[in-house]
Amino acid sequence: MSHIIIYTQNDCPPCTFVKNYLSEHNVEYEEKNIVNDTYRNEMLEYDAFATPFILLNNEPMYQVDMDKINNAFNIKS
């Protein structure tokens, strides 16, 4: 089964879009808001400097790739 972690921040429309999209398709995700220093440091360890930063099955996704997400969770668009 696929696993997704989304690093987010407040007032981030793309973050909200991805979270809403996953929720609408009943996909469970783990959210890590980078307001928390621990999560911000985790994200920086991947050399990621923008949100949303996504780990899909532990693979970094530096730009939101809806096709990859849809394929991983069998979402038909």
From TrEMBL:
Chain ranges of the Glutaredoxin domain: 4-56
Domain of life of the organism encoding this protein: Bacteria
Name assigned to this protein: NrdH-redoxin
